[in-house]
Amino acid sequence: MIPILLIVVLLLAGILAAVAGRWSTAAPRWIALAGIVGGLALTLPLWADRASAAGRPWIADFDAAWVPQFGIHFHLAVDGLSLLLLTLTFFLGIVSVLCSWTEIREKVGFFHFNLCWVLAGIASVFTALDLFLFYFAWELMLIPMYFLIVIWGHERRVYAGTKFFLFTQCSGLLMLVAILALYFAHHQATGVYTFEYSELLGTPLAPSAQLWIMLGFFIAFAVKLPVVPVHTWLPDAHTEAPTAGSVILAGLLLKTGGYGLLRFVVPLFPRAAHEFTPVALVLAVAGIVYGAVMAFSQTDLKRLVAYTSVSHLGFVLLGIFSWNPLALQGAIVTMICHGLSTGALFVLVGGLQERIHTRDLNQMGGLWTAAPRMGACALFFSLASLGLPGLGDFVGEFLVLLGSYRVNVAITVVASLGILASTFYALRMMQRAFLGPNTNSWRLPDLNPREGVIMAVMVIGLLWLGFYPQPVINTFAPVIDHFDSLPALAARR
């Protein structure tokens, strides 16, 4: 029952927070925090059960008939990959509540309702094994996130929220068409109507049909990842969202795109995905270089951090379509570390904006002298972002490059230029915002204990992943082992 309890706890916490918001501004915060902490606590038995689940495809599995006449099941399951992403979901959910503790002062109950429900949608995406249920969860993420941007965002929040909604909704509808096409193709081949993931694996499809259905899934996940050129919603959404919204967007929603590629695109359509590899590799390196160059050119600090996500998550696409274990390990480690490092940068940017009421780098400078602890944290996470050895981001990107080198040397060389460019934008951010003389005579409070705890935990996480990532790699090793057989399967199909 744990997979469904993870979602129910978040849904109930959101409802209670909304109700409590009618008479208190403090109660919704504590209710949401308690619900998310409770969800995180529920993952602990799953971690404990990993050893006993060896040899089984799932650590925990909940399956109940939902609409049996159409082959729809309420099927949730957790393996090593989804367990890591669920843990990241609840951890960043706690961070989102804490970083918005004083930022959100209006409609506090409704804010935490949407926060809990978007987390519930994300948790459902990471556990759903019925494709109809997966699509339902995919759409469940959309509406609460839209409200978080449009109601509590900044100056151009309506434009950014509408753009986010249109991109994700249209791509989601395209995925729905692809799901239905696979559903009817499976019935035509077997006589059985089903949305069940395990039964749809290996569905016989004509090469052209497999390619077109795969593209329907790929485009939906590419929009969320985001992949150039369908990334244009992301800088606006990140920039205009409240701090908690930016943390969830960067740390979690973007990961649903990478998860979808790993869980659905490659296993369901190995031959089409293998044939699509050259295009995917070009899109990956285009995003890596383009995101880094665009980040360097920004004067809005939050927009700068937003473009770094386009660059870093290009490594995820590169790793997945390199078709070897090293690159896949790097892709998953990059997803986790990006959630920590970029999430921390958004927390810092939100804290700065709350204190000095600007994100313009041209109006900053000398902030280190006014807030040295904040400056030190910004330096640490900037170094993590540029891939400093000893930190988690370096491990992920190094493994991706090591794996992609075995596939295409030219692609790997171009991707390496993205890492070089990340050095420039990270150092430029530090120089313009925190270093130099304090010409504006900034006087602002440094990190408070609540913010300090957030930063400390994220620092420890990135150091641990940088120096000892093997336990994390071992957790998702069964997923990697399954991928080893896919190139041969693609050749046969």
Describe this structure in words.
The chain is built from 22 helices and two strands. It is mainly alpha-helical. It has a two-stranded antiparallel ribbon. A hairpin with a 4-residue loop joins strand 1 and strand 2. Mean pLDDT is 91; it is low at 488-493.
The share of residues in extended strands comes to under 5%
With strands numbered from the N-terminus, the spatial order across the biggest sheet is 1-2
Distance between the termini: 37 Å
Which stretches of 5+ consecutive residues score pLDDT under 50?
488-493
Proportion of residues in helical segments? over 70%
Main sheet: strands, sense, barrel: 2 strands, antiparallel
Taken from the alpha-carbon principal axes, the silhouette is globular
Summing up helix and strand content along with how strands pair, one would put the structural category as mainly alpha
Task: Provide a compact summary of the structure.
With 493 residues, the protein is mainly α. It has helices at 2-20, 27-48, 80-99, 108-125, 131-152, 157-190, 197-200, 207-224, 233-240, 243-268, 270-275, 277-296, 301-320, 325-356, 367-370, 372-385, 392-405, 409-433, 449-467, 470-475, 477-484, 486-492, and strands at residues 60-67, 72-78.
